[in-house]
Amino acid sequence: MRRAYSRRWRRSHSDPIVVFPDRSPLFALALVALSKALFRYRSELAPVAVMVALYVTALVLHHRDPGAWPWIPASTVATATLTLWHPRYRSEEKACAFAAVMAAGAWLTAATAYGPGTAPLPTLLLVTTAVGAVPWWMHRRRRARVRVDRTIRAWPGMSERVGLAGSKIQSAVVDAWGWRASMVLRPGQTVADAVAQVPAIESGLGTRPGAVRVEADPAHAGRFVMRVLAADPHATAIPWPGPQSTSVADPIDIGVFEDAEHVRISVLRRHVLIGGTTDSGKSGVLNGLLGNLAACRDVVLWGIDLKGGMELRPWASCLDRLATTPAEAAALLDDANRILDARAHALGRDASRVWKPSAQRPALIVVIDEYAELTDTAPEAVDSAESIARRGRALAVTLLVATQRPTQKAMGGGALRSQMSTRICLRVRERRDVDLVLDRGMLAAGWHAHTLDAPGKFYVLADGHTRPRRARAYLVTDNDVRRTAAHHANSRPSLDAPSTNATDDVLEGTVITPEETLWRALDTAPATGRSVPDLIQLTGMKRTWIYDRLHAWARTGRAVQASRGRWRANRD
Ligand SMILES: Nc1ncnc2c1ncn2[C@@H]1O[C@H](COP(=O)(O)OP(=O)(O)OP(=O)(O)O)[C@@H](O)[C@H]1O
């Protein structure tokens, strides 16, 4: 249940004014203190107020018309049923409200008929109120709302103590993880002032460190949103739900924000930069993206992994090409440029402006894990990468780049980084790295990636994500990767004819996919075939992967089992 507190709230919740005769100051002071306490604890005292109201109603009804009691059960059932349809309540809340209305109605019926003072009705009322009050008192969001009410009331004084004197809470919303408030700054104050005061605000509100977030309001320099988290929704790893995308045009769900909203980013026509220190979860984010892209029939995936293929090898069966040495990487990027030329030519012929991906004309995504390795070991490839970054968008050739620290040197100059329109910043070691990954000025605007405290936590700057909101990526396990890669390996698309023709003349000598290696091994096998252990060693792939391909090719007559456990190409 969400509830907005606005100016209306202030009008209807202003402190009560107590009027009393000017005779006894002590009595007057006691009355003021009591009425203030009753007002302050009105939410906690609500069950007692309901009990008193029920008793008085029963007293009046019993004295006026005790025979009217049959009307009460009918209206009770109608009211209780209405609570079940309330759209803002969750099912447990509806069940509690239903039970409370039914119990109150039953008691009121009996008390109207027999009189509220007739035993055991008073005892029953007391016991039922006490039992019914427990879930009310324990209710997490009721307590959160009360805390928010009190904070709003205390803010004028607190704002001075936390260094934001004159700022105001304009409205507040309680949600599943805590609450957030629209704040108005005093003229002259800036969001940067609020960001600088975050630790003081946390101390003033009495929260744990790290519970308060400040987000600028893009529409007004004198306003911001203050997010207060009662509990950290990112405290534990969030399991990967598996691939959700079926087309490269679908935004990919890579994790969740703190308010449980999903983080969806587009990779079609948008180059992606993933930055973060070692062990911050870069490969996890890459795996989440690859897991979804592997399930899409309109994108071909190429990979460059200069850490010996450690990160991308598990996806080999879904990658059309995988480069693991600097020479292979340079050749791969060269080929991607040839594809760009061929596609540009094809588009010119068809008088089209952009390459629209389909299963027959797939997009091409080049994944580069640890870009700094590429600039270090294959500097000649940097121009090719930059050319893809500059020209690739319209031609549906996209880069997905991960790096530990995207300095000018590591990125081979700033040209590539400036083309990356989607930035994912995981934990960085130094404050200034935030501006390196995201862009200049982002640290000052509240994108505090240096304070992220667990792997997989990140900030994202992309279309539709322009505020500094913390998110956590799904945890993609090795098992998830194995299962997803095996599931989609046989249904990957091939490049379109213009793209294939553009690279055909240079493919000789470049790295080939495990599938191609397997086919060559079968094609050159002796008449007695090659053993499965040999095929495993030649391709570097698992037994199940080998058998999946062999059986698929055997079904189409492409390969045959020469003898038990030995296979070759069908030459008949
Ligand atoms: N989203 C996540 N949730 C929880 N744990 C995660 C998440 N992502 C990664 N981890 C854990 O963090 C550790 C490091 O992750 P990962 O290898 O992805 O980091 P990295 O930044 O790629 O590291 P390196 O730079 O050394 O390659 C792993 O043990 C992994 O299980």
What does this 3D model show about the protein?
With 572 residues, the protein is an alpha/beta fold. The chain folds into 4 domains: 1-36 and 140-232, Threonyl-tRNA Synthetase, Chain A, domain 2; 41-138, no CATH class; 247-491, 3-Layer(aba) Sandwich (Rossmann fold), CATH 3.40.50.300; 512-569, Winged helix-like DNA-binding domain superfamily/Winged helix DNA-binding domain (Arc Repressor Mutant, subunit A), CATH 1.10.10. It has 20 helices and 19 strands. It has helices spanning 7-12, 25-40, 46-64, 71-84, 91-114, 121-138, 140-161, 191-196, 198-205, 282-294, 326-350, 371-377, 382-391, 415-418, 432-437, 478-488, 497-507, 514-523, 532-539, 543-555, and strands at 4-5, 168-175, 178-184, 212-217, 220-229, 238-239, 252-257, 262-265, 272-275, 299-305, 321-323, 363-369, 397-403, 422-425, 457-461, 470-475, 530-531, 559-563, 566-569. Strands 6, 7, 8, 9, 10, 11, 12, 13, 14, 15 and 16 form an 11-stranded mixed β-sheet that branches. Helix 3 (46-64) packs antiparallel against helix 6 (121-138), helix 5 (91-114) packs antiparallel against helix 6 and helix 7 crosses helix 9. The longest helix has 25 residues, at 326-350. The chain is elongated. Residues 1-12 and 506-511 have low confidence and may be disordered. The chain binds adenosine-5'-triphosphate. Adenosine-5'-triphosphate is lined by residues 237, 276, 278-284, 404, 455-456, 472-475.
